[in-house]
Write a structure and sequence with these properties.
CATH class of the largest domain: Mainly Alpha
Number of domains: 3
CATH superfamily of the largest domain: Tetratricopeptide repeat domain
Order of helices and strands: HHHHHHHHHHHHHHHHH
Number of strands: 0
Number of helices: 17
Length: 328
């Protein structure tokens, strides 16, 4: 009798042990399946994100956004994805969408300088200069090398006294960059106001190059300068154009037209990288002038073409065409 009970007990113990092994094995398989699934999700996310970066690099912003939407369906509202959304919509000139995604990114990391810079540019493109100024203050507070942009935005907001005070403060600290010196001198002399484009004087258009050269020597007003630089460019006096535009920037450091003419001269002399620098800086001063903005992008297209950056050249040219159509 005891032997029989022992036998039955042994069978029960064996069966329970076997069942536990099956349960443990199932749990392990389920855990492995979850890990494999998560690993696959991560791989898919990385692949879509890499595709987005590739498409953006070659100017296919719509395709980049499509890839980012796939990223978003896997992992929602990650900072890098939101930032890339903002950059792509910005490149497509869909500024409200770009602004929305960039603000979401700042909610995740409010001090990220790259996201702040993007939002500042989005505001500037929408002529929200006061909002751009507030963002730039935060950027410049932690990045002293961004003070020039702050000066420019003060000027765009017609806060001339703030621009003057900032430049004097930088000078006292001994950190006034050489490129800011023309600003300081012009501000101290009261020559800088909110940059606006001056209408061409029709009488000046009838003057010859020599007449304009003589008149500009005695009267360095912007009206005369404008026609003088145009005439130099039309007559292919590129060396003189570069010299005069460089000198003119000391008198009118906030006039975008001067940067455009310098950029045109540098393009003609095949100094494409320097041309881009001048044109990009000039765009910072541009306010509500669609025609002049189109001229800038057309000149930038030539610069990119000279540097064999054909995608960027095409994008810039298309922007110029779109701006001119908008004007019509």
């Amino acid at each position: 009798m005891h032997l029989r009970l022992l036998y039955v007990f042994s069978l029960l113990t064996f069966n329970l042990s076997a069942q536990n092994e099956v349960i443990d094995s199932t749990l392990i398989d389920m855990k492995n399946a979850d890990e494999l699934l998560e690993e696959q999700r991560n791989l898919n996310f990385e692949q879509f994100f890499f595709t987005a970066l590739q498409q953006k690099a070659i100017g296919n912003f719509d395709k980049a956004i499509s890839a980012l939407e796939s990223c978003q369906s896997i992992k929602k509202d990650l900072l890098p994805v939101l930032f890339e959304f903002g950059k792509n919509y910005f490149s497509l000139e869909k500024y409200p969408e770009a602004e929305g995604y960039t603000k979401k990114a700042l909610k995740i990391d409010s001090t990220n300088v790259y996201v702040q810079l993007l939002l500042r540019d989005i505001y500037s493109k929408q002529n929200k200069h006061l909002e751009a100024l507030e963002i730039q203050k935060k950027i410049a507070d932690k990045n002293p090398d961004k003070q020039l942009d702050l000066v420019i935005l003060y000027i765009k907001n017609n806060q001339i006294e703030n621009a003057r005070t900032l430049l004097l403060s930088l000078e006292k600290q001994g950190v006034l960059a050489s490129r800011l010196i023309p600003f300081k001198e012009a501000l101290m002399k009261g020559k800088i106001e909110k940059p606006v484009e001056v209408n061409q004087n029709k009488d000046l258009t009838k003057l010859s190059l020599e007449e304009l050269r003589t008149q500009y020597a005695t009267d360095k007003s912007f009206n005369i300068l404008r026609q003088y630089l145009l005439k130099l460019y039309e007559n292919k006096k590129i060396k003189e154009l570069l010299e005069e535009s460089k000198n003119a920037l000391e008198l009118y450091p906030a006039q975008p037209f001067v940067y455009l003419m310098q950029g045109n001269g540098l393009n003609q002399s095949k100094q494409y990288e320097n041309a881009l620098l001048s044109l990009e800086l000039g765009l910072d001063y541009l306010i509500d002038n669609t025609s002049l903005e189109a001229d800038f992008y057309e000149a930038m297209s030539l610069s990119y073409k000279g540097l064999n950056q054909n995608v960027k050249a095409s994008n810039s040219y298309n922007k110029a065409i779109a701006l001119r159509q908008k004007k019509l």
